[in-house]
Structure formats: structure tokens, C-alpha cells
Amino acid sequence: MKPWPGLTNADEVASPALLLDDARMASNLAAMVRIAGNPERLRPHLKTHKMPQLVRRQVEAGITKAKVATIAEAELAAVHGIRDVLLSLQPVGPNVTRLIRLATLFPQVRFSTVVDDPGAVETLGRAMAAADIGRVLGVFIDLDIGQHRTGCEPGPAAVAVAEAIRLQPTLQFRGLHAYDGHLGIPDLAAREAACEAAYAPVEALRQTLEAAGIPVPAIIAGGSPTFAIHARRPGVELSPGTTVLWDAGYGTKFPDLSFEPAAFLLTRVVSKPAPDCVCLDLGHKAVAAEMSPPRALFPSLPDAEAVSHSEEHLVIRTAAAAGLRIGDVLYAIPWHVCPTVALHQEAWLVRDGRAVERWTVEARTRRITV
Fold first, then answer.
1. Which of 150, 198, 219, 333 is the most buried (most CB within 10 A)?
2. How far is it, in rounded angstroms, from Cα 199 to Cα 268?
3. What domains are there in the chain, each with its CATH number?
4. Which residue spans within 79-151 are E strands per DSSP?
5. CB of 278 within 8 A of CB of 271?
6. Dmax of the chain from CA atoms?
7. Coil, strand or helix: which one is 137?
8. From the CA atom positions of the chain, what is the Rg in Å?
């Protein structure tokens, strides 16, 4: 990873703070388009950044489609220029009517969601019929290709879901959704082989459905680690998310991918509990803590080791502790940037080494208006 110089005006930024490097974000976005070959192939996931400014930048780059995880993210996409929005979490409960409400409010936007169960298809179809909004809702069949989190197996179960969709006049079958987030394999050759093996049943299902007279208009495949692999498949839509900001976790595991961290955390030393330790104001509420340490990498402290982590504090052990003073600024690259961004109300845009403006992380909330 390339060195990052930090801020020349750090004294103007309260800690902990999320910083976004303008030039690096632009470079990462350009790399996404270059790998895809055409921005029309991209359906980036907005869960990573959740910010209006970055949605608009993607639109300016020629991207018209997006994938989202929440209704709030779907609304963010629609408001700021995305014209084809996929909710990638099967809607249940009030989220069914919230999604239909969005489709009513934004008639210029094509909304879709994923389904993996005939009963869920029936519920969605009935709700659409009752709403009578004068348009259909797109649906993609969510496939389980190895992560075992959501989706149905790409075989008879998926065919049953496709048949259920055909029975609902208010729903339109738009294709297949195959996310392979379990393929976080550092070795590129092994990742490629695993990706091919996971995708083979998807292609077989496509052929089965089309032989049965059910056209498959689109296939959405992969996430960030397999983005460049799926980009070699003609006609497949690509949905990387982390690529626009990148993080220490992916940067460490996947050096073959041409992205640089664009999100940094500014933190300060708040205490020195031991001669070889410092305490930072970088607690659970400022950096994602759902994984085992490290929570972040400190470029200036390559030997930093987490000692303890709590709501507002991170204690690290480092040989450099003796030279650090209370109030000193440190910069960290989050290990997992997506949930880290969601912890911050705002982010500072950094241009030419200065924090110049604040961006609201608008869709970190579960509800914007709908």
C-alpha cells in the first residue's frame, strides 16, 4: 500500500474522525470502470459508503445501476441519479410496503429485489397487487453458491422460485443474483478456481431455465474479491462495493487487486497506561469491531498490537509508545471499512493533504423519509 501523508490541518479535525482521500477515491472509481470494461456492467454496492456525493460521482462515471442492502440506501440511490436499484436483502414485514412506496415515489427508477422462497414471492406479489401502482417490481432469484447465508440452491429449488414468479403478474423476473462473499482466498489462482467452481451451477441453472422457456435477462455475480474474475464473463453484471474506498483487510489479503485505501481514521493519544502502551480514542463506536483484531492498521506504527478495545478506547502496544505524547495524532486504515463508515455521522473530504469539507453519511440511518 502506498504511504499516506496525513493532514496539514489536523488541528481543525476533532477525533475520532473518518477521512476520505479525494484523489484515491477517483483513482479507485476509475479502476472499477477499467476492470469492468464498461460502466454499464457495474452495479456497485452502496453499503460501503452510503454518501450522496459518492453516488453522484459514480453516476458521473457512467454508472446507472446500484445494489443496496437497506431501504434507506435504495432511497439514497434513487434521489441522486441511479436509475436501476436492486435491494439485495429479501424484503419482509413492513419493508415490503416501504419498497413499494419507493417505487411509487420514483417512477423514473427501476426497482428490483431478491427472492429465494416461493412464499416470499407470493407475499410480494399480493402486496404489489394491493398497492396497484401501475407498474411491475423486478425480482432476481437469490442463489446460495457456497456462503450459506441467504439464497436457494441453483437447482430445482431455484426453478420452483422462478415458476412462482411467473404466477405473479405484478412481478417481473429479471435474472439471477449470485454473491460469493465466502471466497476470500488470498492466493489468486486458488480464488479463481473456487470462483469458477461456485459459478458453474449458476450457468447450468441459466441453461435449465431458458430450456424451460424462462429467459434469464441478467446475472449479477460476485463481490469485491472476485470482481476482476467475474469481469471476464461477457454479459455478467458486477457488484463490487469495497473497491471505491478499499480497506486494510482486503488490501492485505488481495494484493493482486489494483485499489488503494481511500478511507482513513484520525485518532489521538488520550492516555499512556504503560511504558509500552498508548490509549487512543478509537473505540467500538469509531472502527468496526465485529472481527478479531486487528481492527485497523497504523502505517506509522507497523508493530502496533491491540491490547484492549472498548466503546471509546483502543489500547495498543508499540515500541514507539515512549515517543508519543498525549494529544498526538495517529492515522489508521480500517480493517473493514463498510461497518466503520456506518459508525460515523460524517466524513471529512481530504484534498491535497487538507480536510476541506464534511460529507454526511446519509444512509447510515435505517430510514431517510420512506
1. 333
2. 45
3. 10-16+259-364 (2.40.37.20), 22-244 (3.20.20.10)
4. 84-87, 110-115, 137-144
5. yes
6. 72
7. strand
8. 22
Q: CA 342, CA 348: separation in Å to the nearest integer?
A: 14
Per-residue pLDDT tens over the stretch 206-253: 999 999 999 999 999 999 999 999 999 999 999 999 999 999 999 999
309 grid coordinates: 478495545
In the 8-state DSSP scheme, what is residue 40?
A: G
- Which triple of cell numbers denotes residue 29? 472509481
Contacts of 160 (CB under 8 A, 6+ apart): 118
Comparing C-alpha atoms, which of 349, 348, 364 is closest to residue 75? 364
pLDDT 10s digits, 279-313: 999 999 999 999 899 999 999 999 999 999 999 99
Residue 251 has φ and ψ, to the nearest 5°, of -60, -35
Residue where the block lists cell 459459478: 199
Strand order in the sheet with 84-87: 65-68, 84-87, 110-115, 137-144, 171-179, 218-221, 237-238
The beta strands (E) that lie in 69-195 are given as: 84-87, 110-115, 137-144, 171-179
DSSP annotation string for 48-66 = TT--HHHHHHHHHTT--EE
